[in-house]
Amino acid sequence: MLLRGLSWLVLCQLLGAALNVLLIPILPGPIIGMLLLFVFLLLRGEVGEPLHLASTSLLKYLPLLLVPPAVGVMAYAEDIFADFWAIAGALLLSLLISIVFAGWLMQKLIDRQQRREDA
Amino acid sequence: MSLDWHAAWQALIHHPLFGVGITLGAYQLAIAAYEKTRWVFLQPVLLSMLAVIGILLACGLTFAEYKDSAAALTLFLGPTTVALAVPLFLNLRRIRQLFWPTLITLLVAGVVATVLGITLAWVFGAEQIMLMSMAPKSVTSPIAMLVANQIGGIAALAAVFVMITGIIGAIIGPALLKRCGVHHPAALGMALGLTAHAVGTARALQEGEECGAFSALAMSLMGVFTAVLLPLAILLWL
Question: Which among A20, B91, B108, B216 is least surrounded, fewest beta carbons within 10 Å?
Fold first, then answer.
């Protein structure tokens, strides 16, 4: 079961990688693969048990898989220290403002839509 | 007889699975520490990252060597990204109900997040190459690296900014948002996925399935929009 689901995921990723080279170099293979799987699920109308099992198992370990790219910070320590305050300030401030803004905007729009539906 | 400790040590730290081993170990310790304390600053990704960097420095290993020996883990990032289509699909009905709020938030807040980052870094006096590496900071690292390359930044630096943004967003995002009166799981998820990409999505999945679905949606659409629109915008502007 798990293997069959995994095969689907790997197949989509491989197709995505091929399409990335053939047609859309601007989008990375995994993202194209995700869009492919999404379209496939739309056409099929349901998520099969093997696919559901494989995707929940993998997604459970998403934080673990992100550790190696995160460790990449150490390779650029010098460049970051050179512009440290500008970078740290810009990253932190823009993140704080945009995360609150995004959440606030979405919440307001949802509230408005719900009020409209109630009316 | 004399045991060759030095050779054994070298064989251990240069083994092609050493990176996988220390990452798995660090991650499990980080998870245990997080579960025990529930302290937000002990985000598993951050804690494992620090532990792995510490071990690498102590062993005198470079990131390039670690990257090779952790490749077995990194390889699965692709299929896992593909797997995000599943929660996206399962919550499609809810997303359809909130179609306009989702689309408007995505476009408006996405532009704000990107423009604000560049503008602030420029005001604070960062160099051009830093600005261009920072522009795609809110999208998942494979896209960010491609986009940074196209607009004249450094791909690896972009990945670093992406990670820092993601980790900080995941650490302070949920508490900050709730304090600001954002309670709807869809709004929480949108904010996390839009600004803190995959790390934010991993955090959003802990909040619940709906939150995770919107986060995955926001992350992937933000990625697609950034990949297509940011190089165009820079091209027209410069």
Answer: B108
